[in-house]
What we know:
The mean pLDDT is 92. It is globular and about 55 Å long. The chain has a six-stranded parallel beta sheet with strand order 3-2-1-4-5-6. The protein has helices at 16-19, 47-55, 57-83, 105-117, 155-158, 161-167, 183-193, 210-223, 230-239; strands at 30-35, 87-93, 146-150, 172-178, 197-206, 226-228. It is built from nine helices and six strands; from the N terminus they run αβααβαβααβαβαβα. The longest helix is centred in the first third of the chain and has 27 residues, at 57-83.
Amino acid sequence: xxxxxxxxxxxxxxxxxxxxxxxxxxxxxxxxxxxxxxxxxxxxxxxxxxxxxxxxxxxxxxxxxxxxxxxxxxxxxxxxxxxxxxxxxxxxxxxxxxxxxxxxxxxxxxxxxxxxxxxxxxxxxxxxxxxxxxxxxxxxxxxxxxxxxxxxxxxxxxxxxxxxxxxxxxxxxxxxxxxxxxxxxxxxxxxxxxxxxxxxxxxxxxxxxxxxxxxxxxxxxxxxxxxxxxxxxxxxxxxxxxxxxxxxxx
Length: 250
C-alpha cells in the first residue's frame, strides 16, 4: 500500500550531545507492563479489529501477523519475569460505563463513527465486562498480577499506576502491547516524565501503521528512554550487563 513518505533526520544529523539518554536501569527494581492486549483490538469479530477488517482486509492481515509475533515476544518476557518473581502489571483499555458516559467527547465521537461504518455491529472500544474487553487467553494475567482498567491512552491518567509502582519500589518499567504509537507511547512518555526509567520493547509492541510505530520509537529513544528488542532485554535481564543497543537508529 502507498502512503505518505516522511524524512526523519539521520542519526548523523541528530544533535545527540544535546539529548543523549543514559538510564540507571535496574533488574531488581523492574516491572513489565502489558498494555491493552485485549480481544477488541486483536480479534476480527468485533470492535476496533472488526472495523479495521471491514475497511481493509489487507491491512488487518498485515496487522494480525505483527500481533502474532508480539504475542510470542511478550510471552518470553512474561516467562522470565514470572520465573524471577519480578513485578508484572496489565492494563485494559475501554468504556467503563455502559452508556460510554465516562469517555471524553472525542472518544464518544469515534464510537459513533465506527458504529455507523459497520452498520451498528462494531464500535471502537469494548465495554468493561464484555468479552472484547478481556485480555487474550495467550497472555492472561495470573491471579496475583496487577490489572488496571483505564479509559485514557496513558495508563497514568485514569489509573493509580504511579502510586502502585512507587509502592512496589519499581523504578524501571519495560512496556509492551498495543498500540505502539498510541497507548504504549503515551504511557511511556508519562512514565519518563514522572522519573521512571522506561524501556519500550520495540518488537513486543504492535499497531496498524508500522511506519508511525518506528517514528515514535526513534523519537522516544533519542529523547526520553530506551527502545530495545526483546532479545536484548532478555540478555540484560539474564546477565545484568549494560545493554549494547538502547535505541532504534534512523
